[in-house]
Design brief:
The protein has 154 residues and is α+β, with helices and mostly antiparallel strands. It has 5 helices and 8 strands. A hairpin with a 4-residue loop joins strand 6 and strand 7.
């Protein structure tokens, strides 16, 4: 009986260790970005720490690749955009056109607000700079999973 108990405990710890390893390999999402202006949160992979930038442009939050932004300046490095239509009526006058023109998708609808998301429609990095473009592309892979974490907060 003791042998079976010991064997089960060993198997249990092996399974737990394997799960922990897989979580780390998948880039466990542990870095929370909170936007105070529009009241939402996104969860980034922990390896995004100190690698992203945030800019505001009209009703848009631009989440970008910090190294590209620092090298090339404002308007570059955008990984994705969060659009805030507050009040909700702005969706009718602006949001629908944005959705048609740039492929923006609605990701949240509240009582008096709508949020949308889109990816860049042009190249946002210097493709001649291999290190810079590699860093951008690596972060770009995480965007679909990050968008799934959008959460409205007060």
């Amino acid at each position: 009986m003791k042998k079976i108990t010991c064997l089960l405990l060993v198997l249990f710890f092996i399974v737990i260790a394997g799960c922990a390893k897989n979580s780390a390999e998948k880039g466990e999402r542990t870095l929370t970005y909170r936007d105070e202006k529009y009241g939402f949160e996104l969860t980034f992979p922990s390896d995004w720490k100190d690698k992203y930038s945030v800019e505001y442009n009209y009703n848009t939050v631009v989440i970008g690749h910090k190294a590209t932004f620092e090298k090339m300046g404002s308007g570059t490095g955008g990984l994705f955009y969060i659009f805030a239509y507050i009040p909700k009526e702005l969706w009718e006058t602006e949001g629908k056109a944005d959705a048609d023109m740039i492929g923006m998708q609605k990701i949240y609808e509240g009582e008096d607000e709508i949020f949308g998301y889109s990816r860049p429609t042009d190249v946002q990095y210097d493709f001649n700079d291999k290190e810079l473009s590699s860093g951008y592309k690596e972060m770009e892979k995480d965007v679909p999973d990050i968008i799934k974490t959008f959460k409205k907060v007060e």
